[in-house]
């Protein structure tokens, strides 16, 4: 409880002179306070311990224990609370008066007492006492709230970690730095495998701090994991994330984010950056790094109609790495208010010799620049790795398989407007997953389907020449043309036929993919030596490698592949 | 840091001038600079000549203004952006949402 300034106080009077003590008692009592009296310092300390008076009037010179020692002991006993001690003194030497204050006294009053001055001093001291009490009370309140807050954050973080770490952040090709409480700085880092063995990675930074910044993370993570696991690509996932955040977040909240799709088999990386500082594609062969510039509005700002899901695609091979960071790095200010900036960061990237130390080197550079370390920055580095070494976890199914459909066929035709916006692969894969025998090879199935579909779309319907992709520049041009031609497309289709037939204990799936394009000389293309160092030409090789049989007919316009399976144990 | 506003003679254009840091502490002042007085303006100008820093919550506030001014139909100019301010607006590609003018 806080006592008010007008409260009746309990005042301890310590004076060895009986008449002085009685006189003072009478004055203080008349002013409306309760009085305790002591005739020496030791008695005063004892009384203080037992009765806790709020203010002490202390004679300096007393037998047994003098006022200076008594004041020291009382101040120690009082701890954080302010118990004002006013020295009663006939001393006049400056040195003696200073001693009173050195011993812990707060003020002094000279004998003989002036009643008006004494009352004013008691009141002034009491105001200070109440102020101190208020401050202590608030300090305790803040400490308590802070403890609650930390506990709430701990619980919220534990729940969130269950979600966030269901992904593959622990893969050996990912290195990252994030404060344990990054979530409450609005920073978010997620990674997950897609069914085809691509790795999707998201670094996000919500506006603001604390709880408001953290609440958006949960739905974003849900969309990211859900859609990645179902086999959706970046554009669909981005559209869904944007739409969801737009719907649930207040207007002034949004999420700056970069999303990557790392295709280790085809040696490509697909990038979308909306509002994060430049990321970097670091090349293993010593070429200058490629900045991954933000060319989009952050997630959760634009309506579904105006959202731009265009991504950039770059070659990504052995020795290559992608480095992403939150704005805390370049926005760090030094002691003179200067920003760390992109140039200092690039210097660190250029001078880095040991890739394993890159993140540490950026941290050191930041610490040197600011004179102290920062714990609210997020950085992530993901390296190329041979697909076999990473091994995406296989999916576990819980249904029995008794109702698995084993003799059916289905045909789909996707036409112009659908080809522009829709990715049918997740849906088709979902359908094929109903066949238990195919689940063991769902990853291969997905890769082959994706390859055949993108071949049909890019080379067939859109007539793009993969020879363009022979160098990094042509590579960019290829994907630029892809977007332009798709946008202008007026007529075209892709037909996909599935046929499932039982075969002994097992079965067989035949997939036919036909497109409206001009076809290609399949014999010639397939006879080419497999591309190892080139930037293109891995698609058909993958299809041949992963399916049980494959052939092209109809002048290359129709591809047929087969997957067979044995009876399940 | 201070926010002042100025309405054109015909009442159609509202100019909001921000001096110093444009960050969360400006929130209340910024909102009261455009929230209904007599009637909605049809054009808005945010003058950032004397703004030397802006953070992500300032970007959020600009989005609030955009929402207030009609969302996708809003007519808002961000004028006199210095290089640092321009850089921050560029990273978030706010030029797709606002008409950004570097000098007056």
UniProtKB/TrEMBL annotation, chain A:
The keyword Nucleus does not apply. InterPro entries: Bact_Sigma-Reg, CheY-like_superfamily, HATPase_C_sf, HATPase_dom, PPM-type-like_dom_sf, PPM-type_phosphatase-like_dom, Sig_transdc_resp-reg_receiver. Residues 10-126 form the Response regulatory domain. Gene3D superfamilies: 3.40.50.2300, Histidine kinase-like ATPase, C-terminal domain, PPM-type phosphatase domain. SUPFAM superfamilies: ATPase domain of HSP90 chaperone/DNA topoisomerase II/histidine kinase, CheY-like. The modification 4-aspartylphosphate is found at residue 59. The keyword Phosphoprotein applies. Keywords: Hydrolase, Phosphoprotein. This is Fused response regulator/phosphatase.
From TrEMBL, chain B:
Pfam families: STAS_2 (PF13466). Residues 14-104 form the STAS domain. PROSITE patterns: STAS. PANTHER family: ANTI-SIGMA FACTOR ANTAGONIST TM_1081-RELATED-RELATED, STAS DOMAIN-CONTAINING PROTEIN. This is STAS domain-containing protein. It comes from Pseudomonas petrae.
